[in-house]
Amino acid sequence: MDYQGIFTFILVLIIAIGIIALRRWLFNVRRKQRKDFYKNYLQSGDWKRKRYLVLKRDNWRCVYCGAPATEVHHLKYAKRRIGKEPINLLVSICKDCHNSKHQ
Q: What is the pLDDT tens value at each position of the chain, 103 positions in all?
C-alpha cells in the first residue's frame, strides 16, 4: 500500500477545504462591510440630498402606481460604488410598491 500517496491526497484535501472555508469567510466579512457602509450611507446628508432630488424630479409620486411617494428605490445597485449611483438609477416609489419590489 502506498501510504505516501494517501498522505498526499489527505493533505491536498485538507488544504482545499481550508481554502474554501477561507474564501467563504472573506465573502461574509466583505458582505457585512458593504451592508454596514450602506446602512450608514442611508443616514448621510449625501443620500438625503439625492433622495430629495429624485422625489422632486418625480413630483413626489410613485412611478409605478401614482400614489404619493415616500421612498426612493434603486433600480440597480452600484457593485463597488455605493453612494456614487446616478439619479437615473433611482425612482420615487410608495411604500406598498417598494415592499412588493423587494419580495
A: 578 888 899 999 999 999 999 999 999 999 999 889 889 999 999 999 999 999 999 999 999 999 999 999 998 877 677 778 888 999 999 999 999 988 8
Residues 33 and 50 in one domain: no
Confidence (pTM): 0.71
Helix, strand, coil % over all residues of the chain, rounded to 5: 60, 10, 30
52 and 65 co-located in one domain:
yes
| Residue 50 CB neighbours (<10 A) | 18
